[in-house]
Automatic annotation (TrEMBL):
GO terms for biological process: 'de novo' UMP biosynthetic process; purine nucleobase catabolic process. GO terms for cellular component: cytoplasm. Its cofactor is Zn(2+). This is Dihydroorotase. Zn(2+) 1 binds at residues 51, 53, 145, 298.
Length: 420
């Protein structure tokens, strides 16, 4: 196994030093090593994404575990959590083990499957949560993402069930009765365009209900892709009361607004929808404060025919793995410790993922990414490693280039290119 010496690297923004990677670990042991000139580069613990859609099994034309893993590595990730809305749905030990095994075979990031909460994501009957938890995949996070677990009794049962092994229910907060036929955020722009709106309260009402349920049960709730200022206030109050709730925000909800829907370009169609500028500002503040714990990509690759069509027929979702860190960097600036916390340490801690999100100190597994903060990149969809091209950032110049990523000491990305 090759050893690497990262010469003159800034570890999470600290003064330049040399970082040695040997036998898969951060090391202090002297000896031969390949030298990488890392002057001006910042090392972060490998990023961890709690919300990725890898589309395998079922829609391998949009993404596979391997192509999604490569996109993740190029984005600086060393672990991703794969959502359960595949076909078949990841609602059995068999499917989660398949995804887990495909991830190990690709060997580019650690792929941790998320199990469905309900059979077929249909919201009627609990899936085999225990069998998925005790499978080789060791599932700890369950989500019907794409659908809300809308039935309060089922949600309560799911929270009770996972409490036994300190599992988490990750909720896609959307009261379905309030979003029937919805095409975009409900507000001034939807009125102007004559499109059916997805009101903020459809998200806020479910989060309010679920924090009360989680409090009642004493179990762990994670809220997916928080998108409104009102949701932030519900979370703030729940956290102040000591409810065991964590929350994520996507890079696109930190940057883009519903005004973009006026272009009728379906690349901007996403669930939950892009909101208003005041929501964007509230989400940024909440992320800085910690009311929102983490950034998660909600990487949602879609095939051309599902995206390049009329707005009303287009599937919601954007690819995000390869642009997440540059977007966050453009918003937070070089607050490296905060970025490491929100994109690596906190997601690893929430998921209980060993070996990721740890300090880059001697003896720790060498899961890390090297960023050049001074580089700029124009996003070219044709250059993405993801099998899908539905990025809203085509032609946009973003700061920060991911130069290298190491998974347990092995480079998955070198010189900005995937190693395999
Ligand atoms: N986030 C998205 O816009 N899309 C998700 C599922 C969903 O939440 O609709 C997808 O799987 O494509």
């Amino acid at each position: 196994m090759t050893s690497y010496l990262l010469r003159g690297v800034s570890v999470v923004g600290a003064a330049p030093t040399d970082l040695l990677i040997r036998d898969g670990l951060i090391s202090t042991e002297e000896g031969p090593a390949e030298v990488i000139d890392a002057a001006g580069l910042v090392a972060l613990p490998g990023l961890v994404d709690l919300h990725t859609h890898l589309r395998e099994p079922g829609r391998e034309d949009a993404e596979t575990v391997e192509t999604g893993s490569r996109a993740a590595a190029l984005g600086g990730y060393t672990a991703v959590f794969a959502m359960a809305n595949t076909s078949p749905v990841a609602d059995t030990a068999g499917v989660v083990e398949q995804v887990w095994r495909l991830g190990r075979e690709a060997g580019l990031v650690d792929v941790q499957p998320i199990g469905a909460v309900t059979v077929g994501l249909a919201g009627k009957q609990l899936a085999e949560l225990g069998a998925m938890a005790t499978s080789a995949a060791g599932v700890r996070i369950f989500s019907d993402d794409g659908h809300c677990v809308a039935d309060p009794r089922l949600m309560r049962r799911a929270l009770e069930y996972v409490k036994a092994f300190d599992g988490i229910i990750a909720q896609h907060a959307e009261e379905p009765r309030l979003t029937e036929g919805a095409q975009m955020h409900e507000g001034e722009v939807s009125t102007r365009l004559g499109l059916t709106g997805w009101p903020a309260v459809a998200e806020e009402a479910i989060i309010a209900r679920d924090v009360l349920l989680a409090e009642h049960v004493g179990s762990r709730l994670h809220v997916c892709h928080v998108s409104t200022a009102g949701s932030v206030e519900v979370l703030r109050q729940a956290k102040a009361r000591g409810v065991r709730v964590t929350a994520e925000v996507t890079p696109h909800h930190l940057l883009l607004t519903d005004e973009l829907a006026a272009s009728y370009d379906p690349v901007y169609k996403v669930n939950p929808p892009l909101r208003t500028q005041s929501d964007v500002l509230a989400l940024r503040e909440a992320l800085i404060e910690g009311v929102i714990d983490i950034v998660a990509t909600d990487h949602a690759p879609h095939a051309v025919e599902d995206k390049e069509c009329e707005w009303a027929y287009a599937r919601p979702g954007m690819v995000g793995l390869e642009t997440a860190l540059p977007i966050v960097l453009s918003i937070l600036g070089e607050q490296w410790d905060l970025i490491a916390e929100r994109m690596s340490r906190a997601p690893a801690r929430i998921a209980g993922l060993d070996g990721h999100g740890t300090d880059l100190a001697a003896g720790a597994p060498a899961n890390l990414t090297l960023v050049d903060p001074s580089a700029r990149r124009v996003v070219d969809p044709a250059e993405l490693a993801s099998r899908s091209r539905n990025t809203p950032y085509a032609g946009t110049t973003l700061p920060g280039r991911i130069v290298a990523t190491f998974l347990r000491g092995e480079p998955t990305v070198l010189d900005g290119k995937a190693v395999k």
